[in-house]
Amino acid sequence: MQQQMDDLRAKALASLDAASTPAALEEWRVAYLGRKGPMSQALRGLSALAPEERRAAGAQANELKTLLEERFAAKSASLQDAVAATIAQREAIDVTLPGWRPLAGHLHPTTRVIREITRAFADMGFQTVEGPEVEWDYYNFEALNIPPGHPARDMWDTLWLEGQRPMLLRTHTSPMQIRHMETHKPPVRVIVPGKVYRHEATDATHEWHFHQVEGLAIDEGISFADLKGTLYEFARRIFGVERKVRFRCDYFPFVEPGAEMAIDCFVCEGKGCRVCGHSGWIEIMGAGMVHPDVLRRVNVDPARYTGYAFGMGVERIAMLKYGIDDIRLFYANDLRFLRQF
């Protein structure tokens, strides 16, 4: 038994010294200290010895097992230290080098323009409210003087949702005109920023989702002159105090009369260039006096109250303000583009 323990000790320690990787060390542990290894077999074989030999042989076997476990632990720690040293050398950091300057986050250009627009109207007494992006047909069309079958519905390429009742992704922020007037009596003066959706092809000037800002003012004695003065002040605040504005007749079912508002081209100063289509003017929004039928639907007497509404595309304002020629850039997540703002 003594000779067997000596042979096992010499063989195990030689094999342990040859293990140079954590994987090889694990193989050694299974081979010599595992349940089927020679050490376990030697301990199980003690029962076959005579009682006077069993005591001495057991002491030798336990002593050898303790020695192998201690050597294994020491070898494992040594290999771990070597691996750690290799990683530290490979990933070493020169603390004398200047550190990386952290990149400062900033707002998306669309968000920046929304905040500029809401700040301009807040200074003129408008409150900012928001509404749902998933909307009922009633609020998106019917309550805005666009009943089922009305040809004006073709002006909005609508994304409809499946269900028993007609729901859709709102095509404009105008539904909040109705929602707000249902719960707030005049005087009303609000703007509604938010995302809208259209089922249309994407190109440099069209996106299937974009942002709008809706405006609504209802009170006694409001006239078209109030609308013109408000939007003129807005144009000066966003595009510069030297801006001129132009109003031309246009049609929207929920206003009467309706108009489209344009500013003189800030690139060519009204002389005509590629940006303004050589017209000298750039259209920026639609507007008009709130239709009496819209007021009646929310129990507001059009004989006593009048008001105006307007709506603009935020990305269009941003494109004009920053000289961007492709609306798709706003949603491409290209850091080269976003870092400019």
Q: Please, could you describe this protein's structure?
A:
This protein is an alpha+beta fold and 341 residues long. It folds into 2 domains: 2-90; 110-338, BirA Bifunctional Protein, domain 2. Helix content is 40%, strand content 19%. The protein has 11 helices and 10 strands. The strands form 2 sheets. The chain has a 7-stranded mixed beta sheet, with helices on both faces. A 3-stranded antiparallel beta sheet has the order 2-4-3. Helix 1 runs parallel beside helix 4 (51-90) and helix 2 (22-33) runs antiparallel to helix 4 (51-90). The termini are far apart. The model has no long low-confidence stretch (mean pLDDT 85).
Short overview:
The protein has 341 residues and is of the alpha+beta class. The protein has 11 helices and 10 strands. The protein has 2 domains: 2-90; 110-338, Bira Bifunctional Protein, Domain 2 (BirA Bifunctional Protein, domain 2), CATH 3.30.930.10.
